[in-house]
Every structure is written in structure tokens, then in C-alpha cells.
Amino acid sequence: MLEHISIERIRNLSHISAELHPGATALFGANGSGKTSVLEAIHLLGTGRSFRTHQSKPVIQHEQDDCRVVCRLRRQGRPLVMGIEKHRDGTARARVDGENVASLSELARAMPIVLLDTDSLGLVTGPPEGRRKFLDGTLFHVEQSFLPLWRRYAQAMRQRNGGLRRGILDADSAWRQELAETGERLTQSRTQIADTLSRQLADTASKLSADLAGVSVVFRPGWDRQVGLAEALERNAQSDANQGFTQVGPHRGDLRFMVGGGMAADVLSRGQLKLLLVALKLVQGRLIEEGGNSQPIYLVDDLPAELDRAHCASVCAQLGTARQVILTAVDRGSLEAAWGDGPLELFHVEQGQIKPVS
Questions:
Q1: Of 54, 137, 212, 251, which is most buried with the most CB atoms under 10 A?
Q2: Beta-carbon neighbour count of residue 254 at 10 Å?
Q3: What local confidence, expressed as pLDDT, does residue 203 receive?
Q4: pLDDT tens figures, 89-108
Q5: 3-class secondary structure per residue, the chain
Q6: Residue 324's closest CA among 22, 55, 46, 14?
Q7: d(CA 51, CA 288)
Q8: In this predicted model, what pLDDT tens digit does every residue of 314-333 receive, in sequence order?
Q9: Contact 297/141 with Cβ under 8 angstroms?
Q10: What's the pTM value of the predicted model, to 2 decimals?
């Protein structure tokens, strides 16, 4: 659980700190007041990156060299302090319990984040890369052996592609063998989590909207599964050499979201796609809860601006009161109405300052 957060020099947040409580916290304030920047700071601490931009410069306050986020967590009954500094040149430094971290994945392990927003429709409608990241990000928290396996595959892919580009094929059979071994194992993990995701998504999505009844997930591994990956790589070896890169394998995998036999992106309205996106994130959170060592923190950004009151209430009902949830909206009334009768800690955000409201 996130107990305290301190944010320095992120966008219009010069220096703020807040004590947080279990359950739901609502941040409300005018557009541009800084409430989404608070979520951005928490996301930065838990993942090493912003959810609004891929660059460091826009996140860091104007004319400042760096930004910093520090928090105190309670994990498995004991306190834990972690922090991150991001510099304008793109470099970063992070610590967990006083120790420098070798990889930002250590931040994600310590504080899982599930972001519920409706600005990321590319997860449903965009290119496969985003869906692979979603699937692998879930597996990272659910299966402890997944990250080392993924790194082995990625390293073999880089080595083989480098050799293909330079026309060096002497060791290609060895790289193909490594790709086949790690790729088959990686795909087995993805297949299992995709099956679980499909089952839970069908239930969760239908509870948010009757229009999403029957939604399903189809996993595409990245090659023709009528043959093994080793054979697929061998069949494509000459074509790969001609093209200079590996054309089949898990790096080409994808998820397809289907409704009534058609692609969700083609048959659903924009509003329905937003609800499907939220349902996906809710299911991701539950999978992390079931398989991870830490409860995720749910960041819910301005759903009342995108969804009507009834659907907002449905989303909040799915979140329940046993999770730590941080929500934002322009006015407190929309958040209170959506959350219902459960306890809700309120903070007013104005001109980069945050104040508790009794």
C-alpha cells in the first residue's frame, strides 16, 4: 500500500507531499491544476516512465534539470521507501530501500501499477507492439521466471538480426536453436495467460456493458503453429538472410479482441471500445493480484469525462473497496457519485498544490 508520496519538479508540481490511506483517494480540481500530474508521478515511480510521453523533458518542470518522486510503501506488513530521479538528458537513478536498482523492473516489482484511462485506445485499435507489452507486463508480475526468459529471447534476437544485417550466417543455426527454445517457452506462457485473460474479460466486460457480452481474446503466437518454431525459423532462414531480420517468432505475436465473430476495433463504437479498454485493465489488475507478491495500485484518470455516470459507477463497483485506488476528476461530485457509499478520501488540487478536504 502507498502510504506517503513526495513529488518535486514534475510539470506544475514544484513540491508536494501527501499522506494516503487504504482504499480510495479522489483528486479533484480544474483542468491544468496538476491532478493528472500526481498520477503521472506515481506511474513514473512504479514503472520508470510517464504514461503521457516517452520523453523526460516534458515531465520535468520548466528550467529545472531533474525531477524526483519518493514514496513510502507498506509491503507484506513492513515499510519500504523507494524513489526515482529523472534528468533532462534522459538518464535516471532509482533506489529501493536505500539500494540503487540495476533495472527499473525492480521498481515495477516493488510497486505494481494498473492505469485505467481512456486515452490509450491504441491497446485495442493500434499496432501489435502495445498488446505484446500489455501481455508481457502482466506475465512479469504473475510468473517470476518470465523476465529472464524474455531477456534471453530478446538477446538472441538482437544477436541474430545483427548477424543477418552484416551477412554473417556461420552461427545462424545456433541462434535459431536458442530462439526456438526460448521462444516456445515464452509462447507457452503467453498462451496460458491469454486464455485466462479471455475467460475473465468475458465476465468483466459484460458487467460493464451488455454490448460487450461475448467478447473474447484470440492469441496469435507470431508463426504458423502447425509447425514448431524451430521448423518455422529454418523454413524462413534464406528469406531472413535476404531481408536482414527475423520474420517469425514471438516478437511478431499479437492479441485479437473479438466480438460476435468480428474484430472489436471494427464493430464497437468508440464508447464501447473505451469500456473494453477499462475491462482489460481491470482484468490485468486481478491477474496481478492473484499471481503477484504485491497488490497493485490502481490509477484512474478522469473517467467521468469519458464515461457516463452509470458506466463510471460500474467501473468503481468492479474496483471495490478492498483495493488502493487513486481517482481524478474535475469536480468532486462526479467522483463521489461514481464511488457510491464507500469511504473516499478527498484532496483538492489547485495550481500545483494538493490539500486534503474534510
A1: 212
A2: 16
A3: 95
A4: 989 999 999 999 989 899 99
A5: CEEEEEEEEECCEEEEEEECCCCEEEEECCCCCCHHHHHHHHHHHHHCCCCCCCCCCCCECCCCCEEEEEEEEEECCEEEEEEEEEECCCCEEEEECCEECCCCHHHHHHCCEEEECCCCCHHHHCCHHHHHHHHHHHHHHHCCCHHHHHHHHHHHHHHHHHHHHHCCCCCHHHHHHHHHHHHHHHHHHHHHHHHHHHHHHHHHHHHHCHHHCCCEEEEECCCCCCCCHHHHHHHCHHHHHHHCCCCCCHHHCEEEEEECCEEHHHHCCHHHHHHHHHHHHHHHHHHHHHHCCCCCEEEEECHHHCCCHHHHHHHHHHHCCCCCEEEEECCHHHHHHHHCCCCEEEEEEECCEEEEEC
A6: 22
A7: 19
A8: 999 999 888 999 999 999 99
A9: no
A10: 0.94
Q: Are strands 297-301 and 325-329 parallel, antiparallel or unpaired?
A: parallel
* Residue 88 binned pLDDT confidence (cut-offs 50, 70, 90): very high
Are 26 and 327 spatial neighbours (Cβ–Cβ below 8 Å)? yes
Distance between CA atoms of residues 234 and 224, nearest Å = 13
Q: Are strands 344-350 and 24-28 parallel, antiparallel or unpaired?
A: parallel
In our burial notation (b when 16+ CB lie closer than 10 A, e otherwise), range 30-48 reads: eeebbbbbbbbbbbbbbbb
**Measured in Å, how far apart are the chain's first and last C-alpha atoms?**
22
